[in-house]
Amino acid sequence: MTTALENYRICLNWLQTASRVVGLEFWGSRHRITPAQVLILVAMSTFFALTILTIYFSRGKALEMLQSLNFFFTAFTLAFKYFSFFPNRERIRRLTDRFEEKIYNIYKSSSSEYPLLVTYSRMLYITGHAITSLYIGGLFLFGTYPLVAYLREGRLELIFYIDIPFIDWTTKAGYWATFIMQLMLFAIGVCGMILVDYLCAFVSINGLLYVDIYIHHLDVFGKEIVHLVHKSMRPSGSQ
Does the keyword Transmembrane apply (predicted)? Predict the structure, then answer.
C-alpha cells in the first residue's frame, strides 16, 4: 500500500510530465528556451493561422465555419491559460514544494493528522486518473472517428474542420498529411488541458487538506482547553 507521500509524488510526476510536453517546465529549467517551448509555440501559431484561413475560406458554409470557430475559441481559451501560467512557473513550483515540505514530510504515519493525508492523497490520485482518462478517451474517440466514418459509410472525415492551404485533403496523400497534422495538434492540446485542469485540482485539493489540518489542530486545541478548564474547576483534593 502506497503512503500519502508516495501518492503525492506520483501525482506530481504526472504534472511534471505534462508540463514538459507543453513546454511550461514548472519543475525544470527556468532560464533557457527548451525544444518543447519552441514546439508548442509553433503548434499554436500553426493552429491559429490555419483556423483563421479555414474560417475565411469557408465563410459561405455555415456548418464548417461553426466547427472551426468552436475549435478556435477552445484553443484560444487554452492558450490564454498557458500564457497565464508561463510567468508564474516559479510560484507554482514553490507552492508544490511547500505542500511536500510543510505537510507530507512533517506528518508521519504515527501522527493524528496522517489519516487526513491518506484521504486527500487518494483523492489526488483518483482525480488525476479521472482527468487523464477523460481527456485521453476524448483523444481516442476523436482520433478514431474518421476511421469509423470511412469503414461504415465510405467517406473521408477530418478530426476537425481545419484545412492546410494548397493541400487537397480529399486525396489520399493530402488526407493523411492533414490528418496527422490535426492529430498532433489535438494531442498537444489534450496534454495542455490535462495540465491546466489537473494543476487546478491539485492545488485546490492540497489547499483543502491544509485547511482540514488546521481545523483538526483547532479541534485538538479546543479539547485541551476544555480539559484544562474542567481540571481547574475541580475542588482541591478531589480525585
Answer: yes
Question: Within 10 Å of residue 137's Cβ, how many Cβ atoms?
Answer: 11
Closest CA to 185 of 83, 78, 36, 40: 40
Q: Which long-range contacts (CB under 8 A, 24 or more apart) does 203-208 make?
A: 203/95, 205/120, 205/123, 205/124, 205/127, 206/99, 206/103, 206/120, 206/124, 208/120
Q: What is the pLDDT of residues 70-94, one digit of tens each?
A: 777 877 887 887 777 777 778 888 8
Cell of 231: 481540571
If phi > 0 it is left, if psi is from -120 to 50 it is alpha, else beta; for residue 155 that is: beta
- Residue 129 grid cell: 486518473
Domain boundaries, the chain: 4-27+81-231
Separation between Cα atoms, residue 95 and residue 206, nearest integer Å: 10
- Print burial letters for 225-236: b (CB count within 10 Å at least 16), e (below 16): eeeeeeeeeeee
- The Cα–Cα gap between 131 and 125 comes to 10
**What confidence category does residue 31 fall into, taking pLDDT thresholds of 50, 70 and 90?**
low
* Cell matching residue 132: 487523464
Count Cβ atoms below 10 Å from residue 134 Cβ, excluding itself.
14
pLDDT tens per residue across span 106-126: 888 888 888 999 999 999 999
Cβ–Cβ under 8 Å, residues 108 and 114: yes
How many angstroms from the chain centroid is the CA of residue 30?
A: 20
